């Protein structure tokens, strides 16, 4: 069974909505990285948040969400508006000397980057508060994007028997939406997303339940099938080695005999011997 995300509008209230079932994609990434229950929930919610933000962007953009809390747990997730995704999560600090220490954020920060092909990226931040991912996600939307939204997420941690679930909904107020529209939908939707029985429903059943609750049609504009797809390549890894500099690369070759870099998202390993490295710095 494939994952699904639908994007649509609520004409009566000047809102747009998204409903996502990311169970298969999130589970694949969780198993790949052997995450515990706590980190599997964090990663799944961050993935769904990245997808929601990506649906608000242009066709060629993709969005990344990166955060690190006060206990050094961190997640990095990417998505475009079609649900092509990758993610990684770490339950604690990296070892001293790990190159990833140069790129990870300071504690208590969520960073969002909007990447556009052949153009400069745009990044924004929010400080994390001690609450759920959903609360911090809404805090980001309000502070950085000036967007009013209603967000609900449900992740059932991966069990020994293989059962797992990752679903979410987002209702975003368009500029024409009145404060009365937002208040009405928030009062109607909030009780529903706090019920376990709602998340037990199938995808279309969730949409039907929401329409009954708000007494309005949810008009579907597009449907996509999210998937985990890493875009790493030997060319990109070669650029990392070149960025180290010839002296550092040759030092690693002397000490180890080869340079091996493993993609943190898909775990694919790339090896470079002395001849490979010499060729990189000759180009």
Automatic annotation (TrEMBL):
The cross-references to Gene3D superfamilies, in alphabetical order and at most eight, read:
Hsp33 domain (3.55.30.10), HSP33 redox switch-like (3.90.1280.10)
UniProt entry keywords in alphabetical sequence = Chaperone, Cytoplasm, Disulfide bond, Redox-active center, Zinc
> One Pfam family name from the record?
HSP33
- Record carries keyword Chaperone: yes
Q: Which GO terms describe its molecular function?
A: protein folding chaperone; unfolded protein binding
Example of a GO cellular component annotation carried by this entry: cytoplasm
Query: What is the protein's given name?
Result: Hsp33 family molecular chaperone HslO
InterPro entries the UniProt entry points to = Heat_shock_Hsp33, Heat_shock_Hsp33_C, Heat_shock_Hsp33_N
GO aspect biological process, one term: protein refolding
């Amino acid at each position: 069974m494939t994952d699904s995300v639908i994007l649509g509008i609520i004409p009566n209230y000047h809102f747009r909505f998204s409903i996502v079932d990311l169970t298969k994609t999130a589970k694949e990434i969780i198993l790949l990285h052997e995450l515990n229950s706590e980190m599997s929930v964090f990663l799944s919610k961050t993935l769904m948040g990245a997808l929601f933000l990506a649906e608000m962007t242009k066709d060629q953009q993709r969005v990344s969400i990166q955060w690190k809390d006060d206990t050094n747990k961190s997640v990095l997730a990417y998505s475009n508006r079609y649900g092509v995704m990758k993610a990684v999560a770490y339950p604690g600090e990296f070892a001293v000397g790990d190159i990833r220490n140069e790129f990870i954020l300071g504690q208590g920060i969520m960073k969002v980057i909007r990447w556009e092909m052949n153009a400069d990226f745009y990044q924004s931040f929010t400080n994390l508060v001690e609450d759920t991912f959903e609360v911090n996600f809404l805090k980001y939307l309000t502070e950085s994007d000036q967007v009013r939204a209603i967000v609900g997420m449900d992740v059932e941690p991966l069990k020994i028997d293989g059962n797992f679930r990752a679903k979410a909904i987002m209702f975003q107020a368009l500029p024409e939406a009145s404060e009365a529209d937002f208040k009405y939908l928030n009062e109607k939707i909030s009780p529903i997303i706090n019920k376990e029985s709602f998340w037990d429903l199938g995808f279309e059943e969730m949409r039907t339940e929401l329409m009954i609750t708000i007494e309005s049609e949810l008009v579907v504009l597009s449907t996509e099938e999210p998937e985990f797809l890493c875009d790493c390549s030997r060319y990109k890894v070669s650029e990392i080695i070149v960025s180290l500099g010839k002296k550092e690369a040759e030092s690693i070759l002397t000490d180890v005999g080869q340079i091996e870099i493993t993609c943190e998202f898909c775990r694919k390993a790339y090896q470079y011997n002395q001849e490979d490295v010499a060729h990189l710095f000759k180009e």
